[in-house]
Amino acid sequence: MNSIVKSFSEHGTFVQPDTLDYILSKDNPxxxxxxxxxxxxxxxxxxxxxxxxxxxxxxxxxxxPEPTPASVMEKKELQTKVLSDIYGDKPPYRPSEDNDLEYDxxxxxxxxxxxxxxxxKEEMPNLIKIEKVKGWNPKSKEYTSQINIIKDVTGGSTxxxxxxxxxxxxxxxxDVLRKxxxxxxxxxxxxxxxxxxxxxxxxxxxxxxIVNDVRTTVNxxxxxxxxxxxxxxxxxxLKNKRDVLQMSGxxxxxxxxxxxxxxxxxxxxxVIQSIxxxxxxxxxxxxxxKEPLCAAFLSDIHMGSKNFxxxxxxxxxxxxxxxxxxxxxxxxAGRIKYLVVPGDxxxxxxxxxxxxxxxxxxxxxxxYEALAEQFQLIPDHISILIQPGNHDAVRxxxxxxxxxxxxxxxFSSNDITFVGNPCYxxxxxxxxxxxxxxxxxxxxxxxxxxxxxxxxxxxxVMLRKRHLAPTYGGYTPLAPEHSDYMVIDRVPDIxxxxxxxxxxxxxxxxxxxxNASSWQEQTSYQKMLNFVPDxxxxxxxxxxxxxxxxxxxNKK
Length: 556
Ligand SMILES: [Fe+2]
Known about the structure:
There is one protein chain. The protein is of the alpha/beta class. It has 15 helices and 19 strands. Helix 1 (2-9) packs parallel to helix 3 (29-39). Fe (ii) ion is lined by residues 300, 302, 344, 389, 391, 499, 501, 518.
């Protein structure tokens, strides 16, 4: 499998997981890979199944010989057979001279019946009528919004997908995280370059490097191969050292870690004493808004899906317009100044096999139009920030720059800031790291103790590693930007993800962690996986106090 990924990465091309599955489904995947690499005219940044299928089609067409007279004859025979099946044994009808068609009567209807044109059925969600609620004066209307974009790849993408781009990406990741490890972790204050280890007989060794291999040996020890710009070191977590072995279970490919250890007797291994993750400090300076305003987090709307929760969505719209809820709930609605939408705003098309069966709107552009229509019902004084997810119509490789102008223009009647994925921004001075969260699945797959349905626990690990998606070649396609936008180089006040359709709130060392629910009922795919989403909920943070509440719009 690695050799297949490598064959494409040599051309600067990423292979999407489903593309890899498609290649592996072939009788001889290696041979098939070399056929594809030879046949591709251009190497795309991200190789999709469609790319491969179009190559296969072109090549098959080349191999199909021009029809020979014999094959034309065969075709003819086939046609005759089909016609005789239609007409039975009788010859096809031919008008004779005395059975002339009646052209002379202009009143006679002679309309040829055309087959009914099949128009695709679309089920646009209904637009409810929002009337101004008497006596409802939202507090947040009195304030102007203060949004500051701190870090976003939008407009700054540099990658072309070449091998040297990857080198730059990993170098940048290493430089930023080494600095954090050296400056903030006392245990690594004496870290040395890897090539210095072999030359001297040092007792305790401190190293910082990128993990380029990690595996469990047949004897149950864990091997970690660490690399820096000077060399490689093989480190071992012995199975009888429980705490070290447990820590080593959290180490994943391509992340930057520090290792403290001792050189083995024969000098070829470093026996690990502890593993140091960059982490965030216990005490972090918190930013708070001066005004009593709130930010709400509304993820994974999946507009266009048959499972879009229209009734619950309408309840949300009524509430945010002051037309629903008790007095406390209405007070909260009136304090919402910001609405953050962390991706999968539409269901998209061609995202997974058989998706068309589950779409109410089959045109992705119409999906965005439908969403824009619904967003017009959100009060004007609320500022909305939208970022893309893996279902949206932007490049799939992360970091994802924001939506094309054509899509942005559909939303011109709202106050919307379009940002990339991930993105750091501040709302009234409160810093938010918003990331759709595709890599949550990679973390849950690669670290045994983590579960896909416990996103907040995974987000804590992301903060410990100070990275959103370290591993190349997993479920998350990564673009080799020259600067690593997936590094958590700032400690946010709020860290929000979506993607797993759960409504969870947590805290790690003072950082508020949120997984921001969804507006899609359980899909057949989720049902197959026995996954129950926690949809139609809205986590809300009071930016002045830091308190978090959750509004529930589910039908009771
Ligand atoms: Fe989603």
